[in-house]
Design goal:
The structure is a homodimer. The first copy, chain A, has about 325 residues and is α+β, with helices and mostly antiparallel strands. The first copy, chain A, is built from nine helices and twelve strands. In chain A, helix 4 packs across helix 5. The interface between A and B is large, with 76 and 76 residues. Chains A, B: Catalyzes the ATP-dependent phosphorylation of thiamine-monophosphate (TMP) to form thiamine-pyrophosphate (TPP), the active form of vitamin B1.
Chain lengths: ~325, ~325
């Protein structure tokens, strides 16, 4: 097995060049032509071995896919289409070259769906494997989706099921659980964790629905840190509240005969990493969007002038079910 | 002393927000308005504690400055002016909050010289401190400076002295050396290491000289990995050779009474991290540029149809002084 220290940085770079467009590599920086009337959108993620990915649950291909999908999801959440990504890699010298090639393979598999290139990067020695991806995209100014513009009365749409990725992770960590699941169900949940899809496909639906209504009256973000977190962040940024109908929150069908209602709801609200979009828009147009998407998209609640996010159970407000960020993911406190 | 784990990711993010423009933070990604007729230029660097910086030689302010300067230097080397940077940070929980604030202080001090904002980032838990910066800039298509377009007969200009940064690092690592230097000389060399200046100031000179000659007939890169590396990379990318006159390679004056000629030349050619520009352009215009810059800029040689880069000593070619990449910096082989 060839390790990185056997071939050095130059040797590794040469092996990885096949994942990058030849016209872009080999200079101090990459040059890209952008659409002149669009804005530039930029997002970045840092991932560390043992914290964000692990060989126990995630192959290098899947780690590459997931990291890429997370960044593309941030672009989708702004309404932006991707232009390219850069990749910063810190690698121990005794890591195998094939691990790194597999990581790049996973990244490019995710990117190729959107014809998006890896346009640059940096590879350095590090005691621990770490990966930093910066994605950039473009968006017409009147199509930007912000967190801060949710309006009282807006319907809240989620573009798909929640809790699947977290369930998949649990199944990977402890294969003994999930005896009540079929192999097909297990594999689907595990795939939701390993190969999440950024919802860039939602954007053309929005552009079509709002072709004559610009700027688009849509606010939102992605649910990468959990559905509860997304709704809370939107409400905080917009100075509004929300009510969610618990029964409306879409979850994988497998949850029905595997988890209690309470567990299923916890996975869906706080599991995270489903990378769906959480969008707030006028109710009639929300219905149009849900019909247009036709793949698990649902209206889960509405924006209120309240200062809380409350969870209703069959239209009854349960006093202790006010959502808080504290059940969400805090990276340093764990 | 407050550590990161005491205030968590959210607490740290709140403390760092003062370093970022308020209109940009708080969404999934940053939105930037670019000049419609310019191209986007992107570059990224990854830095790891103990490999690229260390508390022994580099304060967090200086680590922040240096990392930022390196990225801005890559933009300058493409002819691009900066738009913004993103910052990915992997941090151990027991690192002090003030360390991170000092890092950001150093980054913003460097950026403020060019009115360039930090537009986004990601902060995650990591066993080892690591820093990934991605810088964005823009350039008119006919002003792009590439490595691959050097022409036989071009003069090779360096925009300033070489070897200072490496000398500064040596002085920091071993304060006992450099007894023959004055305090002022020592401080200047150390500052060259801790606070290198990206040569973005060179670009307006080029634009003025080549106002009527577009696309600009200039190729080049920065000397971040050493002057020898820069000349060799340009020659390899352009399919040309070069001759350099060793006496013309500008070094700090302090070297004259501190190092042997051989040592001084080694520092200047292979030291690295001086972040000057190495530019190839027609000889008459190279003279105009050198006069226009008037701060240590010198013609050090010329581009040939040879396949080697040779070093001349008072116009005599020394057979064993053919420059090679192998004396340059290889990140994994050390």
């Amino acid at each position: 097995m060839t390790n990185i220290k056997d071939i050095g940085e130059q040797g590794l770079l040469e092996r990885l060049q096949r994942f990058c467009p030849p016209e872009i590599i080999g200079d101090d920086a990459a040059v890209l032509v952008t659409e002149p009337t669009q804005c530039l959108v930029v997002t970045t993620d840092m991932l560390v071995d043992g914290v964000h990915f692990s060989d126990i649950t995630t192959s290098p291909e899947d780690a590459g896919w997931r990291a890429t999908a997370a960044n593309l999801s941030d672009l989708a959440a702004m309404g932006a289409t991707p232009l390219g990504i850069t990749v910063g890699l810190g690698l121990p010298g005794d890591l195998s070259v094939s691990w790194v090639e597999s990581l790049y393979q996973g990244m490019t598999e995710c990117l190729q769906q959107y014809h998006t290139p890896i346009v640059g990067g940096d590879i350095v020695r590090s005691p621990i494997t770490s990966l930093s991806i910066t994605a950039f995209g473009q968006v017409y100014p009147n199509r930007i989706i912000r967190r801060s513009t949710a309006q009282v009365g807006d319907a809240i749409v989620v573009t798909g099921v929640h809790g699947a990725s977290h369930a998949g992770l649990q199944l990977l960590l402890d294969p003994k659980i999930g005896k009540d699941l079929t192999t097909e169900e297990k594999n689907a949940l595990i795939k939701a964790h390993q190969r999440p899809q950024p919802r860039l496909d939602v954007l053309p639906h929005l552009w079509k629905i709002f072709a004559s209504q610009l700027p688009i009256p849509v606010s939102g973000m992605d649910s990468s840190d959990g559905l509860a977190d997304a709704v809370l962040q939107i409400c905080r940024a917009s100075g509004v509240g929300a009510v969610l109908e618990s029964a409306q929150i879409p979850r994988p069908k497998a949850f029905d005969h595997w988890l209690t209602e309470e567990q299923a709801l916890k996975y869906a609200l706080y599991g995270g990493e489903d990378f769906e979009l959480v969008l707030c828009l006028p109710p009639d147009l929300a219905n149009t969007l849900v019909q247009s998407l036709d793949q698990g998209a649902v209206i889960i609640g509405s924006i209120t002038s309240d200062s809380n996010v409350s969870l209703l159970h069959q239209n009854v407000k349960i006093p202790d079910q006010v959502l808080t960020l504290s059940q969400g993911f805090q990276h340093f406190s764990q």
